[in-house]
Amino acid sequence: MTTFDRYLLRRYLHVFLVFLLSTFGLFVVIDGFSNVDGFQEDKTNATDVMARMADYYLYRSSQFFDMVGPILSVIAVMVVFAMLYKNSELHPLLAAGVPTYRLVVPLLVGTAIITSLLMVNREFVIPRIAHHLRAPRNEEKAKTEDVQPMYDHASKIWIGGAELVRGTNRLKEAEFVLPPGIANDLTPVRSPIATFHKEAKNRPAGWLLHDVQPRRSALHLSEAGEKVLHAMPNEDQLFIATDVSFDQLSNRGQSFSYASTTELVRRVQNPSYGNSSVRSLALHVHSRLMQPMMGFILVFLAIPLIVRKEGRGLVSNIALCTGVMGAMFGVTQLGMYLGKVSLISPSLAAGAPLIISGTLAAWLSDAAQS
Question: Is residue 267 included in any domain, yes or no?
Answer without folding.
Answer: no
